[in-house]
Amino acid sequence: MEGGSPDQGSVGSGTKRSSASSGSRPRNRKEFLYRFVDSGMLTAKLEDWFESISNKSEPKKPAFDVPFELIELQKFDYALEGISFQQVIRMPNAVYASTSDAVEATAYLAIEDFLHAGVKGLWEAFWSQDEPMPFSVACLYDENLKFYQAEKAVADGKLGGLCATGILLTNPRHPHGKWDQILELALLRPDIRNFAMDSDRQLPLSVLGEALFYALRVLLSRSLSRLNYSQSSNSVFILLVDSQYGGVVKVEGDVNKLVFDVNNVYECAAEWIIKHSRIAVSSVDRIWNKLGNANWGDIGALQVLFATFHCIMQFAGFPKHSVEDLAADHGPRLQARRAERQLGDARVNGNGLFRFQQRSVSPEIVEVQDDSVKIETEQLMKLEVGSVLWLEDSNWQKGYQINQVLNNSEHPYYIASPVEDPQKRLFLYVGSHPSQLEPAWEDMNLWYQVQRQTKILTIMKQKGLSSKYLPQLSASGRIIHPGQCQRPSSGGNCDHPWCGTPILVTSPVGETVSQLISEARFGMEEAVRCCHDCLSALSTAASAGIRHGDIRPENVVCVRSAVRQPYFVLIGWGRAILEDRDRPAMNLHFSSTYALQEGKLCSASDAESLVYMLYISCGGVLPDLDSVEGALQWRETSWSRRLIQQKLGDASTVLKAFADYVDSLCGTPYPMDYDIWLRRLRRNINEDDHGKEIDTSG
Asked: Which residue intervals are annotated with compositional bias (Low complexity) in the record (predicted)?
């Protein structure tokens, strides 16, 4: 985009600011933004960098991460099942196949309508059906960087100068929009579809550079704004669309690290992008069909809607109804549909496998009575005490006999023994059958419990993390089902209900803290020891950059032995955080404040979740919570009134002190000092272990 300097009113920095903003740095930043108007010059400064990262990227592997994982989009898709979106103005097919201004004008009108339908549907579904939507949609005119309704821009002869469409905060005082109030920008570009046809190709710098230019302008404007953003304002989403396809670019970074040299605007901007920004680029997928209707449930539109969802959170805060809350309704809807279609038992068994019904019919066309149709229910494959499972790894096969069936309030898991060593006890987790194209919501939890936890424990093993307070990976692989496997030579699985189902086997085995609490067997000594052991596990994992993200009573087990004191092991690592794009579990009772607000973990988040678990174990009462707002309010009240510290202080002064420490650290970038608290907790543990030396690893 090339254009003249924007007028002062069109830039988010045009208003007067406080005295703190009157120094040279804010003035330089404002002047920097005023001069930052040419996307082509920025793109030219990024050529060497772009060529370098393109050459370094592996074949068939994109140079940039994706903004959303497929599992996140699937969860979001479930949440949107009951939500209606309607684009009234159809997108003209093949906009650029015609030179008609009318066709291009209709395309801008259609994009406006698409964005309006999306943001309106999301606002009413997640935030409020009663309050009016505080956002509007308009097109950006490149000569003055102001926003106009597409219809008015076309009528005023500005069609040729339109360069983007944006979702903005509604502001009657600034009808042409302010840059600091932009939620999201969509760029209409004719060549996007070429990258949908060939998934190995990445966006060219000409397209990506323009997206980076607009993203940085928005971030700079926000940094000069007086708006109080509900969420972090350090990230922005840019949409790239044509008449059928679209993708998402996410740019994140702290613009305070940008050098505001007004004489070298584009060099400084390029340096910031290269050194201080994180860029994520989605795949390019179809959004509109040939009739111009949006495919709201497909990947292309879902990516755009999910980006818009995150943008709304930046301005409006966390929604009243979370994605997890709405997605959880998928299971009941699935069961209702099965009952509606009279498919028999609408329940899903503990392994995520449905009962099947099969009609026995003659190959000839014959007249039959209703009662002559025989319904045969396939024998349900389920695990019971005494069942033996055979696991296939790449090099060997191993059998496990089920000794006990357990349940962690979400899905069953098992205590099993190797066939060759019946005295040994192990946890065994069975995942969902991979052939389920439309898995129930519960199966996503199974994916985290089995497949992803297998990945995390494997990484721990590869990195040499060793602690008795961490679970150990004993085995993983896939079930070998009874009978002959008819697996096709091309790969995949046969038709047997068990074929290809993943298994994870871990050690050691113990009772969960939730069970101990329910049976009143979790006292002061157990609380102090549990705090020490869990902190030790977190410390060991943190040394490799791994955080847990899902600490709750069901994910801590007490291991007992005849020759030593009981100890606690932190299990359930399926939601662990390895990198910034990973998201922790969202639990209204046990998630940290930062996780509920930002969807991420700070350094003290796991410790905060541990404090909540210890709070209820020491007799604290958790209220009934049905929304994120309610959960955050409870946390604010409990910490400010020191209710949590007082309850923990009734059990142990060291736990009270630890809670105070966690409270001071929550939401800050400062790291946890594990060592000092492990030493303090260790001094408060009763070390009478019949002469045995206590393992104080960690």
From this structure: 13-25
CA neighbor of 496 nearest in space, from 435, 547, 452: 435
Tell me the C-alpha distance between 47 and 361, whole Å.
Answer: 67
**In terms of DSSP H, where are the helices of 237-329?**
265-276, 299-316, 323-327
Q: What is the pTM of this model?
A: 0.58
CA distance 640 to 318: 21
Residues 381-483+497-509, CATH architecture: 2-Layer Sandwich (3.30)
Nearest alpha-carbon partner for 451 in 66, 64, 70? 70
Q: Determine the Cα–Cα distance for residues 581 and 285; give it in Å rounded to an integer.
A: 21
Domain ranges of the chain: 8-318, 381-483+497-509, 517-698
Strand, coil or helix: what is 263? Answer: coil
- Would you say 429 and 423 are in contact if contact means Cβ atoms under 8 Å apart? no
Tell me whether domains 381-483+497-509 and 517-698 share a fold: no
> Would the pLDDT of 690 be above 90?
no
pLDDT for residue 89:
87
Looking at the domain 517-698, which fold is it? Transferase(Phosphotransferase); domain 1 (1.10.510)
CA distance 294 to 447: 30
Instruction: Please spell the DSSP secondary structure of 89-119, one letter per residue.
Output: SPPPSSGGG---HHHHHHHHHHHHHHHHHHH
Nearest to 501 by CA among 382, 664, 641: 382
Instruction: List Cα–Cα distances, 269 to 144, 235, 273, 276, 366, in angstroms.
Output: 21, 16, 6, 10, 77
Tokens of 333: 């809807």
Could you tell me how many residues make up the chain?
A: 698
| Side-chain half-sphere CA neighbours of 138 within 13 A | 24
